[in-house]
Amino acid sequence: MNLQAIRPGIEKDEAEHRREICAAGVWLYRRGFAVATDGNLSLRLDASRVLTSPTGLSKGMLNPEDLVITDLHGRQLEGRLSPSSELPMHLAVYRRRHDVRAICHAHPPVATGYAAAGIALDKALLAESILDLACIPVAPYATPGTDDLAEALDPLIEHYNAILLANHGVVTFGPDLLTAFFRMETTEHIARVNLVTELLGRQVLLTDRDVDRLLASRHRSRNVASDPCSRTRTADTPSADDTTRSRRDLEVLLAEALRTLNDDV
């Protein structure tokens, strides 16, 4: 058995779920999505129990016995360590979305840069991103690890599977752990492509007709609700001063993103 593999689906025993959360933690850590002790992962074991990463440990160094089981109200049922401080955010998603079985929270650098700038990833640049995530909004800032963060997310949870957290990071969720992780990876990919087009000074966006056809296909195949995100389909034209300043800032961000990408490889 490949101990770093994650199988799709949720029909697994608890031991395999524990191993796969540890594997996902390694994936996050190696990609630079969760540095030091940042980030957290969880999955719903059944209707009343959640398996989550503990607080204060690197996601790249987790052992199966480090994980914690709580109920849907956050009461700890099993585990020698304390659950993630971000557990209230996870539980809010599970309570609102019965289709969600796994959640991934991390700080991928480029997507988190957009979150810190308060910029949604809502431009119609990539067909694949519209099919999978439609668009990725920004939730208002709230103190990490508090119920305020769950409240800030609340209006968005039902409509999206990936959300930028202002001045904080990204949260993604799905029907299994592999999907939740892939959505985190896709969010960072979309952010990188968006950043490169901004640095190049040109974005060729999909037309309204293209977007509507993609969304219709997405809704038919994935049975998702129509999202209320206002998708940008035409690029704004900044002033010359704004362009010069933004280009310098983007060059710094792009250099950092490319270093991270090269480290991953």
How would you describe this structure to a colleague?
- The protein is built from eight helices and eight strands.
- With 265 residues, it is an alpha+beta fold.
- It has one domain (14-264): L-fuculose-1-phosphate Aldolase, CATH 3.40.225.10.
- The chain has helices at residues 14-30, 87-96, 109-117, 127-133, 147-157, 177-200, 208-222, 240-264, and strands spanning 40-44, 49-52, 68-71, 76-78, 102-106, 138-139, 162-165, 169-174.
- Strands 4-3-2-1-5-8-7-6 form an eight-stranded mixed β-sheet, sandwiched between helices.
- It is globular and about 50 Å long.
- A hairpin with a 3-residue loop joins strand 7 (162-165) and strand 8 (169-174).
Short description:
Helix content is 45%, strand content 12%. With 265 residues, the chain is α+β, with helices and mostly antiparallel strands.
By CATH reckoning, the class would read Alpha Beta
Helix count, DSSP H or I runs of 4 or more residues: 8
> How many domains in all?
1
> Helix coverage percent of residues?
40-55%
**Mean of residue pLDDT?**
88
Largest sheet: 8 strands, mixed
Elements, N to C (H/E): HEEEEHEHHEHEEHHH
State the shape. Answer: globular
What order do the helices and strands come in, and which of them pair?
Blueprint: H1 14-30, E1 40-44, E2 49-52, E3 68-71, E4 76-78, H2 87-96, E5 102-106, H3 109-117, H4 127-133, E6 138-139, H5 147-157, E7 162-165, E8 169-174, H6 177-200, H7 208-222, H8 240-264
Parallel strand pairs: 6-7
Antiparallel strand pairs: 1-2, 1-5, 2-3, 3-4, 5-8, 7-8
Helix pairs in contact: 2-5, 3-6, 4-7, 6-8
